[in-house]
Amino acid sequence: MTGPAADPVPPPPGGVLWTLAGDIRGLLMLPAALTLQVAHPVVGAGVDEHSVFRTDPWGRGERSLRSLQLWVYGGEAAAEEGRRLRALHKTIQGTDAHGRRYHALEPAYYSWVHATGFPVYQHALRYLARPLTEAQERKLYAEWLQVGRILGIHDRDMPQTIEEFWPYYRKVLADELEATVVVRELIATDPAIPPPDRGPLVLTVLLRAAWPVLLPAFARFRRFMTIGLMPPDAREAIGLEWTDEQERRLRAFARVVRAVVPVLPERLRYLPLAREARRAARISRSDRPVR
Predict the structure, then answer these.
(1) Are 82 and 147 in contact (CB under 8 A)?
(2) I need a labelling partner for 102 at 20 to 30 A (CA). Which of 29, 178, 208, 282 fits?
(3) Boundaries of each ER-bound oxygenase mpaB/mpaB'/Rubber oxygenase catalytic domain copy (predicted)?
(4) Res 249 pLDDT > 60
């Protein structure tokens, strides 16, 4: 007789994702990954019909960010979060813009949502940090597969090596992606985004008062970072324009980010859940007996 299968475990302390996932620079990468996800018509339809990203964008963003952090830093809570997400997606189904019936947990679609994180990390790190070495890239991909198992993605539904990943990725770009309704909303410069409703009361009140002035600048910056940090082949597949002048501005902005973020204290450089997990890991290592 065999017992129940053990829960999948998150990547270990000291891995590539342990360093990357909680770094505040990840906040700049997330819009590109999300936009690449919803450029798939099925994923875009699911978000269009079932997500609260229009009515509660800040709450949705906060919940998504916490979920992502749990996959890497959550320890035993990581598998529970994976089960919660699968349960949440069980009822998400409908018809996309091409008349195809879909279910959110269909392996091809569910896996694509997860797969997008790897090429965005690989591309964006060249700007915001430093390019990954070949060894780091392979380790990152292996850890990304590990996170996929937490989300309930079977190995058979994801390419298992980098050599297998890139042909899969390019095929999706060539055969599936388009500028869906949700893509166009995410890169719009005149979006109807409500003001932030989280954080200290005084700050929330000030943001609400200044939001008519701040929103246009926020929308332009979001569009700039979304398109700029998206891999060029994905950008081209979706039909998003990117000029040489924009590329120069992105490189100038990235130079500032690379100079500033590494010298920040950890309490400012890492998001709260990541910061606590990293502190706990250091304490655990310091408590080990000397051999």
Answers:
(1) no
(2) 29
(3) 18-259
(4) yes
* Cα 284 from chain centre: 29
Write the pLDDT tens digit of every residue in 80-92: 999 999 999 999 9
pTM: 0.91
Phi/psi of residue 101, nearest 5 degrees = -70, 145
Task: Tell me whether residue 20 is in a domain.
Answer: yes
Q: Using alpha carbons, select from 54, 76, 81 the residue that is nearest to residue 65.
A: 81
pLDDT in tens, 110-156: 999 999 999 999 999 999 999 999 999 999 999 999 999 999 999 99
Backbone angles phi, psi at 108, to 5 degrees: -65, -35
pLDDT, position 5? 67
Q: Is residue 91 part of a domain?
A: yes
Q: Can you tell me the distance from the alpha carbon of 282 to that of 280, in angstroms, rounded to the nearest whole number? A: 5
Assigned token pair, 122: 């690989």
Bridge partners, residue 102, by sequence: 94
Rounded distance between C-alpha atoms, residue 117 and residue 253, angstroms: 22
Tell me the CB-side half-sphere exposure of residue 253, using CA atoms within 13 A. 14
Q: Give domain status of residue 50, yes or no.
A: yes
Q: Is-contact 164 156, C-beta < 8 A?
A: no
The predicted structure's pLDDT at residue 213: 93
Residue ranges of alpha helices (H) inside 187-271 are 201-228, 232-238, 244-260, 266-269
* Range(s) of the domain holding residue 61: 16-280
Contact 60, 254 (CB under 8 A): no
How many C-beta atoms lie closer than 10 Å to residue 89's C-beta?
Answer: 20
Our count of domains for the chain comes to 1
d(CA 22, CA 277): 10
